[in-house]
From TrEMBL:
Record-given protein name: FAS1 domain-containing protein
InterPro entries: FAS1_dom_sf, FAS1_domain, FLA15/16/17/18
Domain FAS1: 17-153, 238-381
Sequence intervals crossing the membrane: none
Domain of life: Eukaryota
Organism of this sequence: Selaginella moellendorffii (Spikemoss)
Length: 381
């Protein structure tokens, strides 16, 4: 029933008790997930688990599995040598014990993959990580409960393995050996700088990469509005700006890059927690589609691309436009120091970069909270 071309054997509820949550799943709108479990040889072990206790399953619906899961990622999971990654993804959707929707609280729970997911309520909606719980308590049996979600939960270890596969063997040297945990108190800029320096040096990259502020080059752009007060960015704040970007329309690839293919959203939060303010120049999906293999495989890879699109100051559409009108041409320092981005006024808007390779301010003020600003642009810089 998969539309990706990777066919799976059909499974039935034979052998499972009719009162079992697993049997109910086999007759539900979540059979794609169950077919993957059958392919991974997980059904019999799961039956033993529910025979001794109960479980909670966060289940993407068939429509999502068929239409929304990246075909390249699904093919990666179904390759014969990647059965361990498939099992990790599937186990990442299962938590020991029953968590009913009415018992939802902001906390981290450990899944059968041994990695954790964060469950939380945001604006009245229950979520698992960034996925919305669209069908709470959809299946409720004595041995387990199923919540329908609108996303696939991918553990960090599998994200990194897929990135290595997608970018080629050279990407092994570009990825951090361990992705940093999100610490609400933040990590120091020096520590963050060292993390990136270490993996760039491993790649024999000559690119300097430091998280620090250089002296402002006069004339300085006009600052955007801010309370100026120190802010502690929580997981909910990260969810807020990434979800706003993803739901805006036309920026889903950048949102995916921030939280799934890298941990860069957490790194931005850490900088905010250190008192810094940032502006993300987000290329739209059309621009991201034009990224070449050479760009993706360049030293620093995805992180370097992201860092070049983050200004080390807070700017809104108004402050950007006022700056280029007043000074004609301004220079912004990026997180990828010492690289800078020039901006000027073009046809009544702001252009970043020079000539035909320059990007125009396309969708302004997608997200602004006084600490992180997201401005949509028309090209990858």
């Amino acid at each position: 029933s998969s539309s990706s071309g990777d066919s799976l054997p059909k499974i039935s509820s034979k052998g499972s008790s009719s009162s079992s949550v697993l049997a109910a799943l086999m007759e539900s709108q979540y059979t794609e997930l169950m077919e993957l479990m059958g392919h991974a040889g997980m059904l019999e072990p799961l039956e033993k688990v529910v025979g001794k206790g109960s479980i909670t399953i966060f289940a993407p619906r068939n429509a999502y599995m068929e239409q929304q899961v990246d075909s390249e990622f699904k093919h990666f999971l179904l390759e014969p040598g990647n059965i361990k990654h498939l099992r990790q993804v599937l186990k990442h959707h299962i938590v020991p014990g029953k968590i009913m929707s009415e018992d939802w609280s902001n906390r981290t729970v450990r899944t059968l993959s041994t990695e954790t997911v964060r469950i939380h309520s945001h604006r009245g909606i229950n979520r698992v990580e960034l996925s919305e719980v669209t069908s709470p308590n959809d299946i409720n049996k004595k041995d387990g409960v199923v919540h329908g979600v609108n996303g696939l939960l991918v553990p960090r270890s599998v994200q990194e393995a897929f990135s290595v596969k997608k970018l080629g063997s050279s990407a092994n040297a570009l990825l951090p050996q361990a992705s940093p945990e999100f610490d609400p108190l933040g990590a120091s800029l020096a520590e963050m700088s060292k993390e990136f320096q270490d993996f760039l040096e491993a790649a024999e990259s000559p690119l300097p990469l430091e998280f620090a502020y250089a002296p402002e080059v006069a004339p300085a752009p006009a600052p955007g509005p801010s309370s100026g007060k120190h802010r502690v960015y929580t997981w909910e704040d990260v969810d807020d700006f990434v979800s706003t970007l993803a739901n805006f329309g036309g920026y889903s690839e950048m949102a995916e890059l921030l939280v799934n293919l890298t941990s860069f959203a957490w790194d931005m939060a850490k900088l905010v927690n250190e008192g810094h303010r940032l502006t993300l120049l987000a290329p739209n999906d059309h621009a991201m589609d034009h990224l070449t293999t050479e760009q993706l495989n360049a030293p620093g890879g995805l992180e370097a691309i992201l860092m070049y699109h983050v200004l080390t100051e807070y700017q809104t559409e108004e402050s950007l436009y006022n700056a280029v009108r007043r000074f004609e041409k301004v220079k912004f320092l990026t997180l990828w120091q010492p690289h800078t981005i020039h901006a000027k006024e073009t046809d009544g808007t702001v252009q970043f970069g020079e000539g035909e390779s320059g990007a125009l301010l396309y969708d302004h003020d997608i997200f602004t909270d006084g600490h992180i600003s997201i401005q949509g642009i028309s090209k990858v810089l």
